[in-house]
Amino acid sequence: MNPRQQCIACLERTPPSTFEAAAWVATEHDGQVDFRAVRDQLNALERSVSAALPSLPAAELAQPLLRQLATLGFQQDDAAQPKPQAALIHKVLERRRGQPLGLAMVALEIARRLEIPLEGVNFPGHFLLRVPGADHSLDPCGGRRLYPKDCRELLLRQFGAQMQLNAEHMQTATPAAMLQRLSRNLRYLHQLNDDLIAALKDATRVMELGQANTSDYLARASLYQHLDCPQAERFDLEHALMLSEDPVQRMRLTQRLVQLPGVGALH
Questions:
Q1: Do 253 and 193 fall into the same domain?
Q2: Is-contact 91 85, C-beta < 8 A?
Q3: Is 193 helix (H, G, I), strand (E, B) or coil?
Q4: pLDDT given at position 262
Q5: Torsion of CA 40, 41, 46, 49, to 10 degrees
Q6: Out of 90, 162, 206, 254, which residue is the most buried by the measure of CB atoms under 10 Å away?
Q7: DSSP codes, 96-114
């Protein structure tokens, strides 16, 4: 199987192997990913974290785990010009720097190995973690507790007053949702760094990992436009038009389709 198929196969296991799936995503972009080295790094990290954890019930160890990872150098990558290495899981593990989702994936894997209950929260703009049933979330970048008031403030800082906190923002992230979010992050980072072919791989993976939205089709259409592939661009624009419920956006999409060369949709 190729890396894409391996990634999907990891998610179809019982239970799914989220970290390994992310490693196969990395392999799709970097054929030099050394799975043995990654495993050795994880084993060493597990030992270091385990040795430093207090003697508490497993349900109370999630925050100490995150704090210990921070002590060992795992921090948010806040580079002014972010690069794909902030999301590629083998680089996050190697550099101990990454986006919140990458840091969360490392923490979730160590928690799984140590049988510490922990789950992902698909919060907009900043991936979070949570002990199942807890009344608060945890920031993967250091382990700070976030109560609803803190989450509202986080939304306000990132999106402005127009976005209000709702239950959908606090939903548990499935493994497939995490990999789809990772793929969206990588799509953005690769495009930001002018690697359009890599971004196209990520954009297509988004489609394969779950239900795509209007923005997903528009993002891939934009890549096809830059790569001068009008037939593929038309295919994605037509799907974006079918999904869009915004009258202004629908009008603009219709105009854009009219301006494309006269080719039929893909079949």
A1: yes
A2: yes
A3: coil
A4: 67
A5: 150
A6: 206
A7: SEE-HHHHHHHHHHHHHHT
